[in-house]
Amino acid sequence: TADSKKMLQKERRGTLFIDTQRKLNFYLRALWGRDFFLRPTAADYEGFKPYIDHFVMHLPDAVDDIEGVSGLALYRAQAAHLAAHIQYTRAPISAEQLSPAQLFFIGLVEDARVEYLAIQDFPGLQKLWGNLLNVEQSQNVEHAGLLKLEQFARCLHDASLKNDDEQLDALAVRFHENIATQSQNNQFSWDLGMELFHVFAEKREVPSLRILESIRLPYRDDNRFVWEFEEFDFLAHGAEYIPASQRQVRRYVSAVEMANEVDCELAGDDAQEIWICSTKFMPYEDAGEATVSFNEMWGKDPVSEPYHYQEWDYQVQLYRPDWSTVYEYRPKKGDPDDIDNILQEYKPVAHRIRQIIDLLSPAGVQRVRNMEDGDEIDINAAVDAMIAIRMGEQPNTRITMRNVIKNRDLAVTVLLDLSESTNDVIEGSDKTVLDLTREAATLVATAINGIGDPFAIHGFASDGRHDVQYFRFKNFNQPFDDEAKSRLAGMKGGLSTRMGAAMRHAAQHLLKQPERRKLLLLVTDGEPSDIDERDPQHLRHDTRKAVDELWSRGVMTYCLTLDANADSYVKRIFGENNYTIIDHVDRLPEKLPTLFASLTR
What we know:
- The protein is an alpha/beta fold.
- Strand 3 and strand 4 (56-60) form a beta hairpin.
């Protein structure tokens, strides 16, 4: 059984990791004054080497004595070498356009560099590593180049040793002469490692990768920590490492498992496990009258990483760097049939939308006639010109034509204001501003979807500068299907209107689109405001600055405001011809598609 195999593995001969882990932790802490994360790894196959993965040091679960060197000393040498990489590898080395053999040669020099730095701080490590480097291995070497590399590794460790090769001796001498001044720069390892590779390549003595990986340096790692194969932020990943045992886990469980564990509903955000019921499981305490499931009652939707944006301070005429923070929240879902009912309710507007689609749809290739410098001759115009010449009249010189491709190169983001004021009921109607905003977004989405322009529908609200909430109801690469309609149907209003940060974040998504022309269509019912800003002019000036920033980056911004008193500020923010004020809010659904058509004709 699996348990019996595990017990047999624990009882294997040699020095076990489980018996030495605490000693190694104290040993490394005594040297560098910090904690390192050690983890055992099954080393029951030939060629295993220790390695570092996400700043966790993986050591073999058991080791054997090596010709007079105890297993504990071998563990100490391995742990100290891995810790030296973590301490002294300040930046990764780019592995682009390097062969595996070149990576190995550069890594051999990099190992010597970090060991040199560690020995400068703790001279006793030279003896620890030297004992393992100088062990006489009993098995024969299947390649002469591998024996030279082992001798070269000893020479880099001890300057008094010599190689049998003059070129390798010269490289070892250069290493010891320059390491004192170049020890902080791993570019030195790259340069010397490539020279070492070329020495072997000129003599055609470069071993195969299989032979290189069998080098007899028992405490060295596989150097995966050294290389940069893709973009990686060392500071972001290394400063605050969270061990795997402390990471939060999301588990999808059955209704039976959820029913047996409902007593843990008061767990906070630091819970080690979050259980998600795969079915809509209602609590049984309400005797069948429950209206929300366990997931809706206690669940917490995941939030994106923070996006920081600058904000313009008009009083000092400078930007406040990283002043506002935007988080992307997952929109709540509603009934997609509500969106289909909107299209039924506005049938006359839908008919007008079909006319807009016919007018604005790309017409493909069209012939433009009556041109002086076209691509080809228009036969009918040429015949008319010849007739005019024969009759002694002045001919028309525009006898050419050109084939022109008529297409639309436009991407659109419809940004909806979801502040608390959108919950107000329209005078003389039973609908709220949010209901009309949803209906208008549905109709304009139908129009844009029919034309074929890529578009997105996003919304925003804010709770101070530290929490600007951003919702993506439909993305550019997502069809306008039931999934997007359900998110649009579940749209809710609340909080405030920090407009500049939301527009800057919307532009980040819009600028990723390949289309040449980009339009940000903002639908709002009031001026920019937030709970932490007492000066009403601050956010107005910041929004104006955001409009200028977006214009300079090729994004046109247009505001459709439902505020009847917007004349006092909207023109100064968006420009003279870049806004429309709708006095009768109930006309918003029919106005928005027509406005989009006039903007993009």
